[in-house]
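INPUT
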Amino acid sequence: MIRFYKNRNIYFAISALVMIIGIICIFINGVRFSIQFSGGAILKYSYDGEINIDDVAKLSSDVLNRITDAQQTEDIATKSKKVVLNLSGNSGLSAQEQEVLNQALLEKFPSNNLKLAESNIVEPFIGKTFLVNSAIAILISAVMIVIYVGIQFKKISGISAGIAALVALFHDILVSFFIFVIFRIPLNDSFVAVVLTIIGFSVNDTIVIYDRIRENRTLFPKMGVEELVDHSITQSMSRSINTTVATVIATLILYIFAQIYDIESIKQFALPMTFGLISGSYSTICIAGPVWVMWQKSKERKRRTI
Amino acid sequence: MRKSVFAIIILLIFAITYVAVFGIHIGDSETGFNIKGASEIRFGIDIRGGGEAIYEAKDLNRKPTDKELKNAKIIMETRLDAKNILDREVTIDKINGQILIRFPWKTGESEFNPQKAIAELGETARLTFRDPDGNILVEGKNVKESKVQYYEKDNSPIVTLVFDAEGAKLFAAATEKFKGQTISIYMDETLISAPGVKEAITSGEAIITNIKSADEAVALSGKINAGSLPFSLISKNHSTISPTVGEGALDVMVKAGLIAFALICVFMIVYYRLMGFVACFGLLLQLAIQLLSLSIPQITLTLPGIAGMILSLGMGVDANVIISERVKEEMKLGKSLGAAIDTGYHRAFSAVFDGNITSMIVAVVLMVLGSGAMKSFGYTLLIGTALNFLCGVTVSKHMMRSFSFIKFFRNNIFYGIKKGGATL
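OUTPUT
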């Protein structure tokens, strides 16, 4: 049996370290919101041959009267090149204005076969609505989970179990959030998808352990909480590892492919997801279990003092 | 008989997978028996490319009324029809007074210019009544109202038109001049109706007869009303994805998915032997039904939707891992294979149940509260977690039970357990 509870301070220290690194990175890298949340305009054009990126930026700045930042990307698999135009400010851009820019670009660079590959134009208030809606959906999901766990795990004092699960969940959401910050991925709708997926996995993971604790409590009613939790986690250890290995295989492969083919949307999804999965498995074993034991022990102490 | 259950299940799984991938097409594509396959899944514009735009009224200092929004929607639908973009979604957001449009890339067209299309779709509609030579007689702004009514005698649908004073005058002159000929009604440059003039109409109230169905009458009347919309629409909120970018994303997903699936199968079989083998078939069945749940009702699959599929498949793997671990534990306690399977599945069920129900709760919250992309995630997650019970638990249990009746498969080597009970 592994003494998870006894070693809890080591695990808490590891998590705290990760959090501190994350917070430091927030100061260094800053939290970037994608235009899906903040509003703004990004246009991607594919092109052939050679093109002077600064000229493209200048033309766009002149035509639209908005300072434009241009970047170049190239994907490894197909060697196709793109120029990414990022317009300053958070306001959208009307389709008419965009069409004017389109014509101007075609005129100025006729031999480069410029083609609009992707455009993303969001008004700030719509981005805000999206952010608020996502936050509400995540919050309501979290509350429902605590209620469900509270009812289903009454035998192991449900609400405390639910809240310990939530602490682990919050841990995992923070880790995925820090991955976005560390890798300078702007928070976008894939962040919402990742958070939702991690919520699903993390809670599922925690519930599997709780299920074992619930069962063992019936089997060994005399066992103390500390031993009970350590015993249950040890029993389901190989399951925790194997499930994480299997799912991480899947997201890692997805990430590798997205990297090779330079598919931004999938990269931004697969990388934080991989870390979130590992964190989900870790937090269940090293955070949710020990936190629940601490809660139970403090309850016992109070009972004794009264 | 019990021994052959696993073979029957495997055959069934192969059959369902075949249908999910290739579909069934018997007879005519319209009237015949058809089940759509994986290639006929409706992909969201983030996968197949296309445009998405949110329109608002331009220079209007009040919120557009429900009726105006409905009319604006009709204009856009007519224009999309004219561009032959049929597979689109146009939705009204009454609360914010907006119109949302999603349209895919037109197949086989490389010069399609989506931002131009987005700009054009919002322009003020121009409804005109024209003579046989194409000269404009009356304009849409002179139409006060159009309604659908039913002819008393045979209950056939008719569309009524009421002109304002100026319109009535112009229309009277026009019908006088073109009696016995047709006056065509155009929205922009699209002909929407060409009624014949039976007599000169001076009252400013006309009716159009000879309409095939009530639906057609409603559409025509709607288009005529839409022609008098007092504002144009502008979109400062739109995104487009070219089909090459979209196809690339799908291609990567499919390739990565196949390889990940194969690797997970190898992992499961190496670690759990026969139970891993059974798990792979359970996962295959889950994936196949999941595809059918998208292709048959033609639910749009977006990239977040695929994320939902990955999550539910991951939970499917987890269900199998939990069960296999449990069965192994029971076998190590010295139980017979049959007994170990029964208790193992029984003990593992509560964990699988609670884990999947919580995910289903999240899925339902997303389907109710989420916006477009999150809805797709919620749908695939809900279906996937529900399938975990069928594929991960019921089907795999029947297969394992069937194997346990065959003497050959009772050897511990098939379960990764040494004689003494220790793990290999």
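end of record. Residues 8-35+126-305 of chain A form a domain with the Multidrug efflux transporter AcrB transmembrane fold fold (CATH 1.20.1640.10).
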